[in-house]
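Retro notes, structure queue

What went well: the backlog is down to a handful. What didn't: a couple of records were mislabeled last round, so from now on we paste the full input next to the output in the thread. Example, using Helicase C-terminal domain-containing protein from marine metagenome:
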Amino acid sequence: QIMIRNGLIQLVIGTHTLLQEKVEFKSLGMVIVDEQHRFGVEQRSHLSKKEPRPHLLAMSATPIPRTLALTVYGDLELSTIKELPRSRKLITTSLVNNESDYGNVLSRIREEVSKGRQAFIVCPFIEPSDSIPASAATTEYQRLNNGEFSDLRVGLLHGLMPLYDKQKIMDEVREKKIDVLIATPIIEVGVDIPNATVTVIMSAERFGLAQLHQLRGRVGRGKFNSYCFLVPTQDSELGHERLQILVQNSDGFNLSEEDLRIRGPGDYLGTKQSGWNQLKIATIEDRVLLQMAREEAKIIVSNDVNLRSQENEKLNIEL
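Corresponding output:
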């Protein structure tokens, strides 16, 4: 921290630790936030408020609703990368509706393992809950390791495991010593296993679109055809709609627009990440009209930043 404060380090790479008040920069010129949807609003804005104000680059495969709203209403400029990385293939995504379909999913895993591939099974909880009907990683591990996959090499990974054990499991996955890894969403980011071709997301309705998209992206990172299976626990209309959206969309930006439609833009001047904000005139679906209004607002502000002219008097009062 002393070296950062004195400017002896030109490039600092870190986690949320860099957002602490006690971390001071001598002359912060640029902030790059990767996987920005994982950060809270206040966390993301903390570094950008340093003086002098640094340049800010935020990157995400799936922008959360508030971020997308800011690209329309705020001062963020948006760039999109539509192409898949070289040699990558689209992931086939399917919704599993019944026990018979789930049996087919397990058969697909076994088929892929027979080809030398690997699979992930993701559960929202570590241990089962008495009050929430959702899949738990420990329960699924015991069931499959002692049942359908007793002849396969099955591993378990979750956040309460000691760091050494977590590292050991991931090393075994990379070394292809584990055929099927049952895990919590701890594998959502930072896991790159090109040999993995199947991911099964249990209790899929418990996850948001951004998280589902990230979990799906744990496979399809190599040259092999890959598959994502969504297994819901509860049958809710909204949950089913969200899962169908993921089945029909592979583009992260399209998913963020659908997430925006379902969850709302949030308080784009504050800290609320989603939920409907009542616009005085337009609706959030009027994207083209809102974009035109944004461009017009830029012109007005550039000519009269404080809205002091007689022409903008009523606008100033309204705002």
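Agreed that this is the format going forward. Reviewer comment attached to the example: Residues 287-303 form the longest helix (17 residues).
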